[in-house]
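Today's session is about reading a structure prediction critically. Students often jump straight to the picture, but the first step is always the sequence itself: look for stretches that repeat, for charged clusters, for runs of hydrophobic residues. Only then move on to the predicted structure, which in these notes is written as discrete structure tokens rather than atom positions. Here is the chain we will use throughout the hour.
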Amino acid sequence: MLWVVVLSAGALPSSDIRVNQTLDGLFTYSWMSGNDGVPFGFWFACGQIGGCGDNNPPWYQCRCENKTFPVCTQCFRWWDAVILESIISISEYRNDSSYEYLPELIFSRSPYNSTWPPHCSYVDDFAWYTLLYLRVHEWLGDKQTKWLEIAAGLFEWTWDAGYDKTCGGIYWNMCSEEKNSITVLQLLEAAGHFASIYRKQKNTEKMNYYLTRAEWLWDWFMGFDSGRGLLDGNNLISSGAVPLDSTDKMCCNATSASLTEKKCINERGLGFSYNQGMFLAACSYMYQATDDIEFVKLGENVLLAVAENMTINGVLVEQTTPSKTWAGTCSYNQDPGGDWYSFKGVFMTRLGDFLIGTKNVISDAALSAAKLLVSRTSDSAWTHASSFPPFAKNDVCNSQMGVVVNATAPKFLWEWHIDSKPSSTLSYYRSMSTGCELDLLTSRWVSNVENETMCQMKCSQLSSCDKYYYCPSNSCEHMNCWLAAESNFTTANTTCKQISQHLVVGTKKLKTSPISCVGRCGEDTGALCRCDVGCGDRDDCCLDFISVCSADFVCFDARSQGSALSLFVTHFLVEHLL
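Below is the predicted structure for this chain, in token form.
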């Protein structure tokens, strides 16, 4: 089906055109085929693709390992599933069959399947594909009946690998005992989605099977802070649960049957945008499975909290930009290369799911807030985060893949607001889970605040504050925010000693610095601080590195392109179908 739209002179393009051009860019710049003309079946992206196999290939040369075992273990990543979900959504909205070949191609190459050996695997990575194949079933189930069975097999794989039979909840990784919000919410959404599907099919036995598991996870998630759940002080989803004593490895929550294991507490750390979106989707499917309007109301509360606390002039932003962002190199453990390129795209896709699943009962206030959030964010992303050919030569993400001749499609940065390029003087180098010993006598201000954002804002308001220290858990009694003025304040290094308190340390990025990067961009020498693209990894950047040297590089990535697609698809939804 060809979707034709006429653009009026002088106006921003419609959501239809934004979707078309972003899709064009996604396949033009990040989708490749082999010498036989067959697509590899994944999108190329910097940092988290390739470079990990026996031959250690560069990321832009990633290939399936061999032809006898065609899965691409070093090339696929979790966000491929998220990108395909957005393509499925727009295909459903438009009744378009152009991309029906993609699920089979990706499934045939992806290692994320129920036959993968379960050894120290990241449960959340596999869960994204459970959610994907559920979407494929609802899209193509009448034509291809296998997808519900494939999704069910993956659900059992993730459940067996991650569910804690003693304490409840889902482990993030099979070889650790960490329980973060995202993994619990993924399986909660999946179980609720299964239950809603089998409810429509009037299959009571299977509906009850999945609904029981969904209720186990819901009760676990909401069993913190006297039934308030894993929320922070702003009614946003927090990062997860942690033991009260950091030396413990295992803990239970208030709903657990175990009477001997120590209890978990709400970490109250930053949950980022994708946790908010996953909660919305989970609420939507739980409502569809049960008709319980309370799930809708809880989802609305989080939606309104996002609109109030995670926006700049109505445009969606992360609560705090991660410290490693814009370090200017392509590596696995930072941006370009980090997971958060995809987070806001996940939020937008799940917001769409919530709006569709609750469209007959959602309040006018929540629907209006959602429409305004989506339209303003979409307009801002198109205006401030897009780049059209010819592209700058300093793209550190996709420059290695060569120039596409006669290309016209745009690329997108990962941030969508007006300051999406790294220029803010009141942003911070953040180091998380740092063991710190504080000299309270030198602290300029000490208090107990609701969340890290409040602690950071107080530091931003005080010219004498160089760093803030924030305790994200209840393990810090009475006080959880310290502001400090440091001597020899020249680098992003946290200068902390190891003790039991694990803090978030934020160091101001400055336009001017006692030791500056002016005239030194690219230098990796300097006794106190450096100005090369690797300083973010070493945590030794001069404090004006971002403002002085950021123009030396940009990053346009398959994940940021996919996130932009998710945004514009949801804009299409609210513009045409709600």
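Discussion point for the tutorial: The first helix runs from residue 15 to 30.
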